[in-house]
Amino acid sequence: MRSAVVIAGGRSTRFGDADKAVARLAGTPMIRRVADRLAAVVDELVVNCRVDQRAAIEAAMADYPLSVRFALDDDTDEGPMAGIGTGLAACEGEYAVVVACDMPFVDPDVVAYLFERAEDEGVDAAVPKLDDGWYQTTQAVYRTEAMATACENALARGDRKILAPLEELEWLVVDEAAIDVHGDLDTFENLNTREEFADAQSRF
Ligand SMILES: Nc1nc2c(ncn2[C@@H]2O[C@H](COP(=O)(O)OP(=O)(O)OP(=O)(O)O)[C@@H](O)[C@H]2O)c(=O)[nH]1
């Protein structure tokens, strides 16, 4: 069984006075676009968000073909890594892909490849690294229990850095060239501002 976690507990401050997770992108809430792209490669979906976001996200997920569960932040605004840990702790699969709610171009072929790399090599995480040097921790595959525990441990020692939990795990880096062979690099594009949102509309 493979799981997916969509993290959505951010405040969308660069977007303005609205939750970008449920903002309509070419007619469809952005989080639903992400979820729809994941449906072909996972068996269940977990949404991580705050309690005040739940009703709108639930409405956006109406009639989704897979089981959808919510993993709500007890402590809000603890950063993306806390959201990753909360979401992974609620998963039933041994491995889960984590995807940020603002990555509507997520490519199922890339996700499938990340699962294969993690599962075949038996590691705790497969994390893409682009040629610009950035680790794509918000579009990566994790062993659910190991990463959830590592996130808890990092938060307990006051470290909210997104790479902090990986320090105690065995993980592999998936480089840009390998991703490029298996799918579309647009998969990592994330939308933060109204302008980026407007520019992206015509691509659906
Ligand atoms: N659970 C949780 N998720 C978060 C938090 N901060 C960011 N995220 C998520 O992490 C991903 C990347 O975050 P950002 O692009 O910084 O999103 P954001 O914080 O909503 O946007 P800005 O306020 O404009 O930075 C998004 O999916 C967010 O929903 C947080 O404090 N808790």
TrEMBL record:
Residue positions binding Mg(2+): D102
Catalytic activity: Mo-molybdopterin + GTP + H(+) = Mo-molybdopterin guanine dinucleotide + diphosphate
EC main group: transferase
Record has Acetylation as a keyword: no
Highest taxon, organism lineage: Archaea
Main location (coarse class): cytoplasm
Alphabetical GO biological process terms: Mo-molybdopterin cofactor biosynthetic process
Function of the protein: Transfers a GMP moiety from GTP to Mo-molybdopterin (Mo-MPT) cofactor (Moco or molybdenum cofactor) to form Mo-molybdopterin guanine dinucleotide (Mo-MGD) cofactor.
Domains (record comment): The N-terminal domain determines nucleotide recognition and specific binding, while the C-terminal domain determines the specific binding to the target protein.
HAMAP family to which the protein is assigned, alphabetical: MobA
Name the UniProt record assigns to this protein: Probable molybdenum cofactor guanylyltransferase
Gene this chain is encoded by: mobA
